[in-house]
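Here is one chain, start to finish.
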Amino acid sequence: MGLIKRTMAIIFVFVFAAGLFGCSSVGAPATTEELLLRYVANENVDNFEAKVNVDLSVNALGVRAVVPVKADLRTANNVAHGTIEVDLSSLNTRNYTMEVYAELLDDAINCYIGTPSGQDTEWKLWKINTSSKIDIFTVTDLLSSSELTLIANDSDPEVCYELATPTSKVLETAFNVAADPVQAGGMGEQDMIDAVSNDKVRVGFTKDCLMRSLNTSALFTLKSAETNNVMVRMGIDVAATLDEYGKIDPAEVAIPNEVRQGAVATKEPVDVIEVIGADSPLAGAVGQR
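Its structure:
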């Protein structure tokens, strides 16, 4: 399920790098460019807490299921720590929880993924190589294609402004940053960009121009050896809320030495069969039973 892993990586990179400089003291931004100037100046760009909800809807082999995924992340000094919980109740099985550390380097993102093994936790190191440093200027370029709107959001009164960014631009940025070509479920990079040509990533901001929310949806159809030549239709709905800017103690998210030393390098950070269970009705669509 390379698409799931790559999508989660894209979501993480986008959320991990975001944040804005205060607006209220100098008036509301009139243009996207003005907003981005304040964005670049923010000293707390990598210090915040993020709560991310992802609903994966899967339709394959006559099985339809919605799998909610919740992630709680705290980040400071280019290091993030948190948990990811997969709710598999729609497949009549147990929930699955992973612990995650991630650090942003000049040429890579190192992800340490801890999965339960009896009374212990097994750690894997998944390195996402990048062709260039992912920094605030990368995100500025990404958001430069956005449209700025003044809004009133009843579900979250703190949201006052919204940037709508083409999802295709988000993918293009992720693909440009990635050092290696990306393929998922038989889809190449251009196939994935074409599949989301009408979609938007909507980013909400507070009156102080701090990033507050992120929402997006996408739908893909996969059919390849990666899915045992079974057609899989997958929908992805993402909603994230960011808060606690400048309040995260770097010591709270630092990667412990035992995690660094004990992690085993891998190119497959998530064993999907292990997560959903070998007896799951979807197991035949995503791997050998």
